[in-house]
Amino acid sequence: MAVRGSRSPVFILGDDAQRTRGRDAQSSNITAGKAVAESVRTTLGPRGMDKMLVDSTGTVVITNDGVTILEEMDIEHPAAQMLVEVAQTQESEVGDGTTTASVLAGQLLAKSEELVEQNVHPTTIVEGYAQARDFALEALDDLTLDDELDDALLRRVAASSMTGKGTGDVSADRLADLVVDAVRRVETAEGVQRDNVRIQTEVGAAASESALVEGIVVDEEPVRDNMPRSVEDATVAILRTKLDTREASVDAEYNITDVDQLNAALDAEEAEFESYAQSLDDAGVDVLFCTKKIDDRAAAHLAKHGILAFKSVKTSDAKALASATGAVSIASVDDIDADDLGYAASVRVERVGEDDLTFVEGGADAETVTLLLRGGTEHVLDELERAVGDALDVAAVALDEGGVVPGAGYPEIKLADHVRERANSISGRGQLAADAFADALDVLPRTLAENTGMDPIDALVDLRAANETGRAGLIATGEHGDIADPVDHGVFDPAAVKREALESATEAATMILRIDDIIAGE
């Protein structure tokens, strides 16, 4: 690229740089964004379809989770990557609604393309979208139910988030019971401690065998078979250094000339290993979790003292164990302080499927719980984990941020109607953008209808008519869909999920729309 003045041109871009400007740049970005949104649109709702994603190594992922699909896709276009970020933001903030946010962002881009072709300036569209978003948010507050968020309503919220997702042979209602029980156990005056709910997966049984464990489950087995497999009233230590022979601080060479010297060296090592076990025993330690290696000979001495030990424990598991038992990670067994040790009512090793799992229950500190999920195959288990993770997130956010709204497309219809009414208050061409925003909201109930097997146009017309005199959404019944009250059918969404979807989708769409120059280097 050259800048020409009164003298010779000044080159500011390399010869290999590619530049796309004006309408071409906008069209390229909008097309990419719409393509990404379209890729997840058919997964929306209780009758949404799954996607099979195969990477270059042949690894297969089967899911209808929006953020998982977008993260697994090999997306290179920078504008398309912005929609991936929308889904990621939605997931990190509220845990659900990723497909909703992505589809809405794509439709906002599609509507903006029509306005640009009518010579509406992108800045005008951006301003109109921002006002329409604010109108939608104020209407969302009015739609929030005043009902007390008791366990029954919370179960419906959790179940709604899992409807249409792969849950094996177990119903969303049964899983919702486990989810609500887990969330209630980690609820404090400061809110739901979501990190204190862990998920442990194990292949080898039906999903209906999933259960809630009041404590922590880690995929660890004892260092030696002759160690106890169950300890009651356990004093717990967490060690972050290896139990091995001490290494010399300087390089040294030892010459052993006879058997007595060799035996003396071995006896010294055995004495060192015995001192480790004795120190732990003297401190009253019953169970040892070590994040590093434990030498086989050291393990033998630990077993002799009746200490249940685990080696190479993952750092994340060690942190969870510390949080649950009140133990403090120590760097040496030489000077163990009583305050460094934790407590658990029970530590036991059980055979689950083909693996040994360790259950740590009744910890002294945090009320940590674990959802032990089962599945017949890895693919079933992976999708079940994603579904339950979303349900935990929405239940937590519903309790923390308060309020739920009826689901099944009802909110989007009401929000669209409200935006159209308020659009008249906008002067100039911004009113066109607000109307376009309302039309974009219609894509969500229209997609739900399409995925349920209904005619999307007829369903949208009937849905609007039903909401003139009452409250109606698109309810999946068997292989068909009906227009009915979502509250009567127990379909709810956290208001925070809808709020985040509106904000993140609008932000992404307007950011893409404002770009009129793409400069790419080779």
Keywords:
single chain; 522 residues; alpha+beta; 6-stranded mixed sheet; 16 helices
Shape: elongated
What fraction, in percent, of the residue positions are helical? 40-55%
Distance between the termini: 14 Å
Q: Per DSSP, what share of the residues sits in E-state strands of 2 or more residues?
A: 15-25%
* Overall pLDDT: 81
Overall strand count: 21
Structural class: alpha+beta
Q: Calculate Rg over CA atoms.
A: 30 Å
Largest sheet: 6 strands, mixed
Assembly state: single chain
Low-confidence runs of at least 5 consecutive residues: none
Strand order of the largest sheet: 10-15-14-11-12-13
Can you count the helices?
Answer: 16
